[in-house]
């Protein structure tokens, strides 16, 4: 299905890919100013992280290509110890909740069906280099949103997005229109489900979140939302902005990315078809991450200690 080869997870390889920065100058400047990244820190960080992986007996198989490791180095602003911790957190998440974050190769038809409902649109990069992700709740059938498949769909989006270096460097801006929100969704998600998904999305995936703008959240959904936000990192919470009307939300779209129906000329159907073609192209790459392996006997107690207050799955 994929047009791209699956990356090796043999950590003992010494034939590293030769990285070349090929993004527009905007991202070179952003990387330098915000992430402390230049040719020297990048080369040194990759070398040190790869050596740490080779020396770590508890990480058995993992991608070591530059684009993958740069996810974590960029998140950590090229602090190698912090990048290594972030990689371990990501690998632990995948192993502790495989039903949420692995085996998407068996779910292609379901993921395509969810995508076709039009809930999520990747609008592109704005003038600041951020990738704008737009969620509309009205088209979404609540029965598709039940856990874990709702979380699986978002995980697929995140894994695909992280294959773009523009996303690694510029991060994402999230726009949400809650108009006609189906309250049945509230009944389908337990506290444990909410924690597993949203704590993972904001705390274990190496994704840089910029501001979030949301409109028309029903008052009846406020308790659900407050519970959800309790599982989100404080840094992400403080960047969330909520509005009473869609008109207020529209003001925060980059004009070049503003959808039809929201004051602009971007046709969401065309954007969504383009994005699904990207997902298809990278499907085997994303699914290939299942080949990564850690010593679960070593990491499970660490995960349990770090998540001692997490609600128990039922």
Question: What is the topology?
Answer:
Layout (H helix, E strand, L loop, with lengths): L24 H11 L3 H17 L3 E3 L4 H10 L4 H17 L1 H4 L6 H9 L3 E6 L5 E6 L12 H13 L3 H6 L1 E6 L6 H5 L2 H13 L5 E7 L6 H8 L4 H4 L2 E4 L2 H5 L17 H21 L4 E2 L1 H11 L8
Parallel strand pairs: 3-4, 4-5, 5-6
Antiparallel strand pairs: 1-7, 2-3
Helix pairs in contact: 2-3, 2-4, 3-4, 4-15, 7-14
Give a brief rundown of this model:
The protein has 15 helices and 7 strands. The strands form 2 sheets. A 5-stranded mixed beta sheet has the order 2-3-4-5-6. Strands 1-7 form a two-stranded antiparallel sheet.
Written account of the structure:
This protein has helices at 25-35, 39-55, 66-75, 80-96, 98-101, 108-116, 149-161, 165-170, 184-188, 191-203, 222-229, 234-237, 246-250, 268-288, 296-306, and strands at 59-61, 120-125, 131-136, 172-177, 209-215, 240-243, 293-294. The chain has 314 residues and is α/β, with parallel strands linked by helices. Strands 2-3-4-5-6 form a 5-stranded mixed β-sheet. Strands 1-7 form a two-stranded antiparallel sheet. Strand 2 and strand 3 (131-136) form a beta hairpin. The chain is globular. The chain starts with 24 loop residues before the first helix and ends in an 8-residue tail after the last helix. The model has no long low-confidence stretch (mean pLDDT 92).
